[in-house]
UniProtKB/TrEMBL annotation:
The keyword Cell wall biogenesis/degradation does not apply. Heme binds at residue 453. InterPro entries: Cyt_P450, Cyt_P450_E_grp-I, Cyt_P450_sf, Cytochrome_P450_monoxygenase. Keywords: Heme, Iron, Metal-binding, Oxidoreductase. Gene3D superfamilies: Cytochrome P450. It comes from the Eukaryota. One of its GO terms (biological process) is secondary metabolite biosynthetic process. PANTHER family: CYTOCHROME P450, CYTOCHROME P450 MONOOXYGENASE APDB-RELATED. Its cofactor is heme. This is F-box domain-containing protein.
């Protein structure tokens, strides 16, 4: 027998005996025990996060946290973990929850700790300002769209915002009351959602969607479908390639893209025909003038991705906050009375429109009620995930090793007792005066630092 043949026989014997062994339960018990022993030794002596306090399961899995996220109990659960283990708590094999304002602001202060990998899947296929993890790309986009959010930019569109926003809403309510002979039922959340969508429509798409006038605005459905199908694509990748799966969402997403594309064409045409008001500094205009890192003009797909992103980032965040504010006014009538009295005193002429700058200067108590609302009910709640970078980072008493996911816990920061007195109570007065201005710096409702919300003004 040649040596080659001999080797083949030995190999087949090995394989056969291995298959035989694999059939026995003893084999599996031994295998599982060996794996378990390896894991225990690893987590006790070698795991880089072994010094971070947390529940035992967090060394092995993040699953219990995910369940809480999906059933809506994450906030209470994580608050309890922090109460028990301190300001930095391990919540998964590679992730820690961070709740102290100083730690959160430290992480957010620089591009050194980029957005975590979960952001990589953008809403549409092209990279955009929000989901990018690339410092240069983000800097470029923020610079390009920045003028639209500057004081000059916002001044240039204030009348449009007033028209499609407050005036349109006032008219809708007045008409409703008139038709109902003094009685009118309204769903505030739905209407605030339509109102914010219409405003962003004007600023980023070049025209209002008319959502406020419609009973069932299709734009809200298109946005919701776009978000849903993008999440499904990320969670279950084959969904993207099987056309009949979730086809309604897919077709809505395509409609969203086509509609955005037509809005871009319309603006370009208006510019060509000299029909566009050059004094208007809005989001769409800033992006139309933009280019990429290599100097080439921004492509249409990128343009669409940036514009749709603005609608998604700005609509629910703003309308949810407005709804909570109204809710607080109803829960605390004495606060509401003070707000009304402040407005009446500063602006006795009820028929005059109050402009943004005047409101900023003359309505400190009203602004305090908004801050307190955003502290207690941040529209982007839960976690902002970041990466601890290749150097790691010192947070409170803990050194967090490289490549750890830092879950920055917004509600934790907004209830941090070392910063806020009686954090569970709605007390707008805390934001009044000079000390109130200082205190407001501890809010992270719009994140903070280099990736702070571009639309916060
Ligand atoms: C009350 C209203 C809003 C709240 C609470 C809010 C909150 C936030 C938060 C927390 C982030 C950071 C998210 C993260 O890092 O994962 C963010 C980012 C962002 N927001 Fe807002 N937002 C609001 C309104 C708006 C509006 C109206 C727009 C635009 C029209 C907008 C555009 C953006 C953009 C473009 C980013 C990404 C910035 C970057 O990564 O460089 N937001 N927002």
């Amino acid at each position: 027998m040649s040596s080659q043949k001999l080797l083949e026989v030995v190999e087949s014997l090995r394989l056969n005996s291995l298959l035989e062994i694999a059939k026995t339960s003893r084999f599996w018990i031994n295998l599982i025990s060996a794996y378990g022993t390896y894991k225990v030794i690893y987590y006790l002596f070698f795991d880089p996060l072994r010094h971070i306090p947390g529940l035992w399961w967090s060394r092995f899995t993040e699953f219990p946290l995910l369940i809480r996220r999906f059933n809506g109990t994450q906030e209470e659960y994580v608050q309890q973990l922090h109460k028990r283990f301190g300001s930095v708590v391990r919540v998964g094999p590679h992730s820690v929850s961070v709740k102290k304002v100083v730690d959160i602001r430290r992480v957010l202060s620089s591009y050194k700790y980029p957005k975590a990998e979960v952001y990589e899947k953008a809403l549409l296929d092209a990279e955009e300002i929000f989901s990018t993890r690339d410092e240069q790309f983000n800097r470029l986009r923020r610079r390009q769209v920045g003028p639209a959010f500057s004081t000059t930019g916002l001044d240039s569109v204030e009348d449009i915002v007033l028209d499609v926003g407050s005036r349109a809403f006032k008219k809708k309510i007045e008409t409703g009351i008139e038709k109902g002979n003094g009685s009118y039922t309204i769903n505030y959340f739905d209407n605030f959602q339509s109102l914010t969508a219409d405003i962003i429509g004007e600023l980023a798409f070049g025209k209002s969607f008319g959502a406020l006038e419609s009973e069932k605005p299709s734009i809200i459905r298109l946005v919701n479908s776009t978000i849903t199908i993008s999440v499904l694509d990320t969670l279950i990748p084959p969904v993207k390639y099987i056309p009949f799966l979730f086809s309604k969402y897919k077709s809505d997403k395509q409609k969203m893209v086509d509609f955005t594309s037509s809005c871009i064409d319309a603006r370009r045409e208006a510019i060509e025909k000299n029909e566009f008001d050059k004094g208007r500094i809005d989001i769409l205009q800033m992006y139309l003038n933009a280019h990429d890192l290599d100097g080439s003009p921004i492509t249409k797909d990128e343009l669409i991705a940036e514009i749709v992103l603005m609608l998604v980032a700005g609509t629910d965040t703003t309308s949810v906050t407005m709804t909570w504010l109204l809710h607080f006014y109803l829960m605390y009538p004495e606060v509401y009375k003070k707000v009304v009295a402040e407005i009446d005193e500063a602006f006795p002429d009820r028929s005059a429109i109050i402009r943004y700058k005047e409101a900023r200067q003359n309505l400190p108590y009203f602004h305090a009620t908004v801050y307190e609302c955003m502290r207690m009910k941040p529209a982007v709640g839960g976690y902002l995930p970041r990466d601890s970078s290749s150097d790691g980072i010192q947070l409170s008493d803990h050194y967090i090793p490289p490549s750890t996911e830092l879950l920055l816990f917004i509600e934790g920061a907004h209830n941090d007792e070392s910063v806020w007195t009686s954090p569970k109570k709605y007390i707008p007065e805390r934001f009044m005066g000079e000390s109130g201005k200082e205190l407001a710096k501890n809010l992270v409702v719009f994140a903070s630092g280099v990736r702070i919300c571009a639309g916060r003004k």
